[in-house]
Each structure stands twice: as structure tokens, then as C-alpha cells.
Write a structure and sequence with these properties.
Layout: H1 2-23, H2 28-48, H3 56-59, H4 62-88, E1 97-102, H5 107-119, E2 123-128, E3 132-137, H6 140-148, H7 150-158
Antiparallel strand pairs: 1-3, 2-3
Length: about 160
């Protein structure tokens, strides 16, 4: 029971922070309306039962998720710079490659992994199968970094 209460309070806190960030109003009447809307959405979420064991909210370790987002943002910046340099300097090699990357993860992990690959410039997830993701990369180095498995390991840790 306490786990469910902590999840409800976490959802309420996230909604309140999101509402404050988007509205930017701090007048008492608007804060009351914002609190009421957050409570209403939390109530709706409880009725829809998103805190079941099979829910995506319960499958992810949220502190690791926040760390992963910062790590992924760094990877996106590095890949963006690499692609931009290759565009500006035609002497740098471009070797388009298609390869299979291991993805023996739960369903949510596969989706996060495939989306992370696609978000990173220079790589695109083409197909997602039971245990692999078919990836197109602008360079062989991009595929070799995926085959190295750093992103895979980090995605796998999100659900442990």
C-alpha cells in the first residue's frame, strides 16, 4: 500500500512541477486552480490504474532514467558535431552501413533503445524484431559504437 501511495505522490509532484513550469503564474487563485487540476488528473490516473505492475511507470528506475537522459543528451551533442563536421569537410569518410544490433530487452526497453538510436544523429532504427534492431548508420564508427554496447547496457539498467 505504501508503494502505491508513494507513486501517487510522485505523480502529483511531477504534475504540479510541470504545471508550474508551463504556466509561470503564482497568483493564489491560479495556484488553487492548478492544484485542483493536478489532483483531478491524479484521480483520473488512479481510476485508469496506471500504477499496476505492467505499467511503464513501474518498469523504469526513475533516478537512472534522469541520468540516462543526460547521458543521451551528451551522445546526441557528440553525434551532431560529428555529422556537422562530416557535412562541412567532404574529405571525411561517409560509409553508410546497415547492421543488426542486439536488443534482448523487455518491450519497453526495446522501444527506449530504438528511439535513443534514432534520436542520435547519424543513426536510424529501421526495424525492431524480437532480439535485434536493424540500424542504418552514416559511418562504420557509429555502428561500432552501438555494437560496443554502452547504450544497450544503460537502457538495460533502466529496468533493473
Amino acid at each position: 500500500m505504501t508503494v502505491k501511495i508513494s507513486r501517487v505522490l510522485t505523480l502529483l509532484f511531477i504534475l504540479a512541477c510541470f504545471w508550474l513550469a508551463l504556466s509561470g503564474f503564482f497568483k493564489p487563485s491560479l495556484l488553487v486552480l492548478g492544484a485542483a487540476s493536478c489532483l483531478f488528473v491524479t484521480w483520473l490516473a488512479l481510476r485508469a490504474s496506471p500504477t499496476d505492475r505492467d505499467s511503464a511507470l513501474t518498469q523504469i528506475h526513475w533516478i537512472r532514467w534522469c541520468c540516462y537522459k543526460f547521458w543521451l543528451a551528451g551522445q546526441i551533442v557528440k553525434a551532431t558535431i560529428d555529422v556537422a563536421i562530416r557535412i562541412v569537410d567532404p574529405k571525411l569518410p561517409i560509409s553508410p552501413t546497415v547492421n543488426n544490433v542486439r536488443a534482448d530487452l523487455p518491450d519497453l526497453g526495446k522501444v527506449i533503445y530504438a528511439n535513443s538510436i534514432t534520436l542520435t544523429p547519424g543513426t536510424v532504427s529501421i526495424n525492431l524484431t524480437d532480439d535485434e534492431i536493424v540500424v542504418h548508420s552514416l559511418t562504420r564508427r557509429g555502428i561500432s559504437e552501438l555494437m560496443n554496447g554502452a547504450m544497450y547496457r544503460r537502457v538495460k539498467e533502466l529496468q533493473e
